[in-house]
Amino acid sequence: MSKTNAALIERKNQAVAAGxxxxxxxFLDSAENATVKDVEGREYIDFAGxxxxxxxxxxxxxxxxKVAEQLDKLSHTCFMVMGYEPYVEVCExxxxxAVGDGPKKTALFTSGxxxxxxxVKVARAHTGRTGVIAFGAAYHGRxxxxxxxxxxxxxxxxxxxxMPGDVFxxxxxxxxxxxxxxxxxxxIERIFKFDAEPKDIAAIILxxxxxxxxxxxxxxxxxxxxxxxxDQHGILLIxxxxxxxxxxTGTFFAMEQMGVEPDITTFAKSIAGGFPLSGLxxxxxxxxxxxxxxxxxxxxxxxxxxxxxxxxxxxxxxEKLLERSKQxxxxxxxxxxxxxxxxxxxxxxxxLGAMIAMEFFKEDGKPDSEMPGxxxxxxxxxxxxxxxxxxxxxxxxxxxxxxxxDEQLQKGLKIIRECMQELA
Length: 424
Prior knowledge:
This protein is an alpha/beta fold.
């Protein structure tokens, strides 16, 4: 008996907790590069990339080869018990790629949320302070501490009560919604005046390009202002590059384009081409603030995931994927900008590198939270997988693998135009 999406969805509803959602009602059987095939044999172009996890595409040959080679050696020891070279190799490479001069050190974990939590731990240990400033519309994870950092309650913290304290919320600059760089920096000064003294703040954490928040790019002058505030008050600047990292924005880390050096950078998602790996990299003297045993995790930096990451590094170098990221981004931006001229409901097209989104508004200027859902459904019918995002749910984002063939990229963009024509 052949499997169907409907039957598997019914099984999911019976067996899987309701809190685990499913954006698209399909179950996959196989995938390669930017093409996925469901259990009923239908193919789709993947413009979601596992939410920015597949910059090198599904099952990149170099990733597969590295994983297969590692599987013939060992799959697990827990690095804190007995070491293995791939862990050290990944850390050496990340230290080399991290933004800024001076010695760096790295620690590896499993999920993006783990990386963020450990970045806060390091900041607390280094500064002797506990407070953290985060931003509206931010997304940092689904653990308790990262839920406290998130700038969006629903659906991530709905019904769960208040999250751990010592987190203060500032405004993220967004001209589209009337928040200037001056407004955003002033909101931090208000925290210092109304909520917490600078001497109580360990770190300011932000995404250089907000992911779930709507792909808003932090202006360079805002980053410069943050760096100045942090230096003035002894506060660490943490760049959450879980979604922007591993080449999505045209540089390996987006902070390369921001004009300032963070003290700590978190990474995950595409770093290992679909295998669970995350970490944080920072100035050596800061990263060494926690003594042996204070950082780690049973599966953190597993041999298999580290091998996959080494395959990703090879793919980026040999296939010039940073250049490809810029090319893909220019193609997407050009098409969506042209689309916006034909459809006034598209109020903005923005992003950095190949991290591009379009935001929808109604005729009265209010966010159109219904249009993205309609586009996602219509595109899926035509064989294209998309994702939405944004504080108001009115943004469609594109996270296509950087390895996507040009013909397939153009086909996906054509489908988006067809969807807009049919929904107008």
